[in-house]
Input
Amino acid sequence: MIRKFGNAAAGAAVFGSVALLPSYPVAQEAEGIFQTPQRPSLNFYGTTGLIDMPSAQMMPDGQVAVGVSNFGGTTRTTLTFQATPRIQASFRYSGIKDANFSAFDTYRDRSFDVRFLLNRESRYLPALTLGLQDFAGTGIYAGEFIAATKAFSNARIPGTVTTTVGLGWGRLGSSGSIGTPFGEDRPAFVAGDSGGELSIDQWFRGNAAPFAGVEWQINDKWGLKAEYSSDAYTLETANGSFDRKSRFNFGAEYQVSDGVRLGGYYLYGSEIGLNVQVQLNPNRPAAPLRIPAPQPYFIRPSRREDPQSYSTDWVKSEAEASVLVRDAIMPLLAAEGLTLIETRTTASTTEVRFSNERYGSTSIAVGRVARIMARLLPDSVETFRIVPVVNNLAQSAIVMRRSDLEALEFSPDVVDASLAVTGFDSASPVLRGSARNEEVFPSLNWSIGPYLSQSLFDPNEPIRIDAGVQLSLAYAPAPGWKVAGRLQHRLTGNIADNARPSTSALPAVRTNARLYADNSDTSIRELYASRQWKAAPDIYTRVSAGYLERMFGGVSAEMLWKPVASRLALGVEANYVKQRSFDTYLGFQDYTIATGHASAYYEFNNGFTGQLDVGRYLAGDVGATVSLEREFDNGWRVGGFFTLTDVSSEDFGEGSFDKGISMTIPLNWFLGKPTPQSGSRTIRPIQRDGGARLSVPGRLYEQVRSGHREELVGNWSGVWE
Amino acid sequence: MINVVSRLFAAVVLCALLVGCSISSDSKATESLPAQIVTAGQGLIAARRAPPPQTVVATRALLAKITEPVLQINPEAAGGSDFLRRAVSRRDSSTGRVEVWNSSVLAQVFLRNGVVVGTRGVGGDIIAADANMTILALRLRADRSGQRVYTISDGDATSTEYVFRCTVRSLGQENIIVAEQLFATTHMQENCIGGPSGDATIRNDYWVQPSNDVVRRSRQWVGPTTGYFELILLRD
Output
């Protein structure tokens, strides 16, 4: 009864086709009928603005911008994220050359900005924005502003003219002051201050000064800018970095491509400046995903027309029928890049458990499995239970009725209609009486390839890089068991050249990175055994032991509660670890610590995910980490985190407390072909010993979540791709 | 400083050497990540530089060799031609008869009485579309207007619904030649306005045979990424 397929795959073209559909999809729209959304230009601080001054404009929601600017001995590199339509956040790394006010040749600093849109631009009213610049750093760029921006277009002048007026404080109120409306007590900038804390006491204090400017976007390519600056550049001019002869700045900008804009400027009556602005939107993939079309499935005859086809005679025993289904479905899944793990069938219901090695979104894999089942299974099977499995963790059971699939395949509202009739259930920890794919275990995966590691923000050498060869091994003897290791051999690099010794008042759990890099070229990055399983339908468990990360080894246990349709998840993790020796072979040092956290995870309505971890950190400090990430349906993530513990800011050292930003980009966003891989990076302005968490491989939450309701719903049209 | 530069240079050379030579037990991932990106980039550049492939004009001699239904598609932006075979033809609960045509490159076009209601494997695909108003207008060869909704893939696993207001008009009788054969048709034109900001326009043209309501030839919009396809029904 199980259907056999001959040459059902798309055959060769009838007369040898000459060409096909685009072999490399181009992100640009073929006809340009959907215009690019409004894309305001950036200023020298890498945020929306004029030349050196800010404007009240916001970027399109979700936009990510990188700006690199240089003038008068100052270079600023800024990453800006439009977190919501009304909130813009930036992280900046800047350098001022020949800075005699600091201990280093080049004064380097990191700063965070945030802006709030108070009023959207409307027909008569301008956009109104409140901004805090360098609000938590050492304060070299500390300044606050309120700005209003209005765009005008007129039939007599080509393009758009945008005018901005604003009032600035701090650095933005240092030239042409009109007084101190909110008090005078603003402390001066002190180089070498540890920074990090919110400088609430100085916001909007001291001198206030107006600034203004105009931008004329002549056509799609060219724009002109002019502004009146309220920044006196007191520090830089005293330092001799440049001569400030004028308050006026002028510039011209050219839009090279959809995402890249270049500008040249004449600033402060004496300096030439350059600005490179790059903008991209996570919602607009660089290359649209193209995956082979699925085979259409057959529609069963109606039961009245052909009752015989609904016969259940093919199920002599469930065990036998399950083996039959397993053998038939395995190659079809494999052709889609999916691996059958096990299946169990009755005459009316079939459950398929599979793992996905090809698609970035689980929804695409679920759609492929559903189609294969609809093509393959005997007509009497009406209910499909599709269970994505990640490393022995059955994520969820997606329940579909076959008659719904048949009815909806070409329906105009297939995406919403099919979601409405799909059920999301918990998957049982073990599928009893199933026919298992015997080829899955044991499995050995290995790879040898290059690696690159970076060390950022050393004041003497902002980017340090090591490169070499890496061997990774993972052996899975049975479901849920894993023995894995990673060996690196450095061929070249300069991370170990960092001469700064650890000066920490805490146990040096992270600040000895240089010693780890310096001590040997060959290192065992990880070597551990782990087992993970489901203890109950909604409870996931993991135990790991070995050399868990580069600096620590020991034992780790974790338990997570995450119902399939719940936005909330709760977890606990306990670890007992010992510091590894600097040569990163098998030895240990004396320092041991019991560390662990209780965690709460929540998926908010608007794509934001929050995480709160409370517990004891590696240096023995007790506190909590708060993380907030915006997660796009296609897998892009941009977020930030901070940790507050019982360590005083003096003991913590530079930065006062641990904080950072994180970014994840799915690889298929660039490539346009399916791959589950993604690139991830966490950037800390500075890594100290306080608030440091153990980095255990294989934490449960991210493994489990990709197959849960919230993630699947966001990508539901992937089922029909 | 020189030391740093030379070391950086060495690092770059090393990376260049290492790119693409990653090996692993998993045959599917033999290409390392940087290599994949480089390959994709090279393909993109080659595709942009290459002259657009030629469109094939089907002849009667060629047509004589085929015995099964064939749909020729000429993508306007990408150039070239492909010949698709019919995989499915059936009625469902919506208006008209739905057909799935398979291309030679694992792509598909869904037609409902000759009107495009979906694509797969093309990139930026139409996941679903309604065509009731258009089908009715083509069948009656009469002017009609109404709303059309396209659900179009954003190029990842998400999609966006685009709503257009459309008007179909008859432009009168036209004789067209397909594979050296003359067909008497009615030229129907559909003009739509809508999309993300409400001002995008699309235009579909259909040449319908009055004798049997078959859309013999058409030029239809298949989404913002791909642009327009010319569809010629060589044999039905």
